[in-house]
Design brief:
Length: 404
């Protein structure tokens, strides 16, 4: 095999024209199938352009239903107006997950010259209000919309909501409004009665996309993301159908196509077809499964690890092949689980708990079980991992044994 050269990578053989168009962070100029939601959010923010306080709004919906892109789209339109008194700031609460960080972000966004490090919340709060009232460099009062994406992740949420809503009582001029985004409709149960009473918010629910809408979204992005003719219509329709069956998640549909393109490129293919989308789906399912594995209790991880290591253990040959698939006897898996537990310094649980763990792992889609039939003496449970044993082993190795 010839030595690798940059020439083979520099030469443009990519199926992609602009992969960033498939990113969940990309905001298209036209947001399909969300006209009503866009109008509702714009209506709530419009008072700021009239020198009045915008409406507090909360947007709910499952992942991939267009909440974030809708908010960003509206805020971009607001900033395009170049208003001196109607302003906004967007922040992801996975990063800005406390009242202090949120206010610090607001100050740094609107007053980048203010030395914010080390100041108390009270000083930041007063500085922010002074700026809103126009007491610093100009006399123009500001009407600020603070967009908080994944707002339910804020640790001291009640304090944040109360501080932001009650700031309007401390302002002589200008205003502060909240545009909250959450996957959890019930997140407000964490709020105290006083915070709820000060909100007076409008709520908007984003319903999942159907297969036809997802097709439209994918076709819109494909024309900008891929070179002409790189994606078959059948592949687009399949990705849309798969995503529609998975709660109507547009992000998932876009990710399926992006990964399908990457897989096709690795094989030096010139078109993305159904088989590439199916391979992409399998890879995405594995990624999701491995996230689930990371959240499992330790003994369930140990049991799964025991099952994953059986094919590599010469002592265990009592497997049963069904249609080319290898199932292991539950007794063999349990004995391996006991050995692995001892090796990690943990006491293995009883056979009753072992059966409970099997039920939990099957419910999570990580293993498949079936009862033994003809050709097997006695009555036992047959078990096989739902994903590649070597990959499962690598994932748990890193978590339990600090393997590289």
């Amino acid at each position: 095999m010839p030595a690798p050269s940059f020439d083979e990578f520099v030469e443009d053989k990519s199926l992609f024209k602009n992969k960033g168009v498939l990113s969940p962070h990309f905001v298209p100029e036209t947001l399909l199938y969300r006209e009503n939601e866009l109008r509702s959010v714009m209506r709530g923010i419009a008072p700021a352009l009239r020198g009045q306080r915008a409406t507090n709004m909360f947007l709910y919906g499952k992942t991939g239903t267009g909440k974030t892109v809708c908010v960003k789209h509206v805020l971009d339109k607001l900033m395009d107006r170049k208003s001196v008194n109607a302003l906004s700031v967007y922040m992801n609460c996975r990063v800005y997950d406390s009242r202090y960080k949120t206010l610090q972000k607001c100050v740094s966004e609107f007053q980048p010259g203010f030395a914010k490090t080390g100041y108390s919340f009270a000083i930041l709060y007063e500085e922010f209000l002074d700026w809103i009232e126009g007491e610093n460099k100009d006399s123009t009062p500001k009407h600020v919309v603070i967009a908080l994406d994944e707002i339910d992740l804020v640790k001291d949420l009640d304090s944040l909501i109360y501080s932001l809503t009650r700031s309007n009582d401390d302002l002589k001029k200008g205003s502060v409004s909240i545009l909250g985004v959450s996957n959890k409709v019930d997140f407000k149960t964490r709020l105290s009665a006083r915070s709820k009473s000060s909100l007076c918010e409008t709520e908007l629910v984003f319903n999942p996309y159907n297969a036809e809408q997802l097709q439209g979204i994918l076709k819109q992005r494909v024309s900008d993301a891929f070179k002409e003719g790189a994606v078959t219509d059948s592949a687009i329709n399949l990705a849309a159908a798969i995503a529609a069956s998975e709660n109507g998640d547009a992000r998932y549909a876009l990710t399926l196509l992006m990964r399908a393109g990457e897989l096709a490129e690795k094989k030096s293919l010139k078109k993305i077809e159904d088989k590439d989308v199916e391979a992409s789906r399998k890879a995405a399912d594995e990624d999701a499964a491995f996230e689930v594995i990371g959240a499992l209790p330790v003994h369930q991880q140990l049991l799964l690890y025991a099952l994953a290591t059986l094919p590599q253990d010469a002592r265990y040959k009592k497997l049963l092949e069904e249609g080319g698939e290898k199932f292991y006897f539950s007794g063999e898996v349990y004995e391996q689980y006991r050995r692995i537990s001892k090796r990690t310094g943990k006491d293995a649980r009883t056979a009753r708990w072992f059966r409970e763990y099997l039920n939990d792992l099957e419910g999570a889609g990580l293993i498949t079980t079936q009862q033994s039939g003809k050709g097997v003496r006695g009555h036992t449970t047959l078990i096989k991992p739902a994903y590649d044993s070597r990959k499962i082993k690598r994932v748990i190795d890193k978590m339990l044994f600090s393997a590289d």
